[in-house]
Amino acid sequence: MKNWPFWIGCLAAVIIIIVYLQFFRVEQPEPVSVPAPTPVAQPEKPEILHPIDKTATEDKAAEPIIDLAEPLPELQQSDEKMEDILSRLFAEQRLDRFFLLEHIIERFVVMVDNLPRQNLPVTHRPLKKIPGIFLATGDREDRKIAPANYKRYSPVITLLEKADSQQVVAVYVKLYPLFQEAYQGLGYPKAYFNDRLIEVIEHLLATPIVADPIRLMQPKALYHYADPELEALSAGRKILIRTGPENAERIKNILREYRKGLTAAKVND
């Protein structure tokens, strides 16, 4: 038994993996790295559908929270600036309660790009995992999302509702070159991030309305939507549905407000 430390280590690793799958993967699978985007043929000069125009937002915020004339930091040194901006946008809030501040611009871009896909790499998300555990009711043959589960999402939705959308758009427009740089770094050298952002917002706004009860199935340790059409939806749409009908509509209202601001901030509007 000279190799007993090795086998004990293997057993411990297996136990850790089982515990992770049982208790944490309900929210979303968590890969260890960001999957490379599927290569898509891009034209030499792709059309920009929603070009950013800095002058379109300069007069919208009565008291801008960011100096529009201030030089931008480098992307890799932008965390401190973003933390300062978020502390102004979400005054009197504990930022570490909601946000993962390290590389937050890159995290945001990765999240946006992957919301319409089947899997969301939550290791790179800008928001922290919703506190608590996923709640379901009923027996194994008739599982439903528990109404109490929807309350877990209320604090972060309320936080986003309170943010001044005009201020947020003004900050985004000012910092847009950093978002564009992060997007190109994902493997889209000729694509335009703001077009992708608008596309993803419209994708989420088209999420079907699913009334309670939202039925589940649990073939093994993990929950799935019982309706195969719901289970086949993108990661972003499934997240919206999982927040509950009322919360999903609140999130859609936030998205509509930002879509309005982002599409107004363009040339020749």
Structural overview:
By secondary structure, the chain is mainly alpha-helical. It has one domain. The chain has 12 helices and 4 strands; from the N terminus they run H-H-H-H-E-E-H-H-H-H-H-E-E-H-H-H. It has a 4-stranded antiparallel sheet. Strand 1 and strand 2 form a beta hairpin. It is globular, with a radius of gyration of 21 Å. The N terminus is likely disordered.
Strand content: under 5%
Query: If helices are DSSP runs of H or I spanning 4 or more residues, what is the number of helices?
Result: 12
Radius of gyration: 21 Å
Shape: globular
Largest β-sheet summary = 4 strands, antiparallel
Content-based structural category = mainly alpha
Strand order of the largest sheet: 1-2-3-4
Terminus-to-terminus distance: 75 Å
Low-confidence segments, given as residue ranges, are 1-41
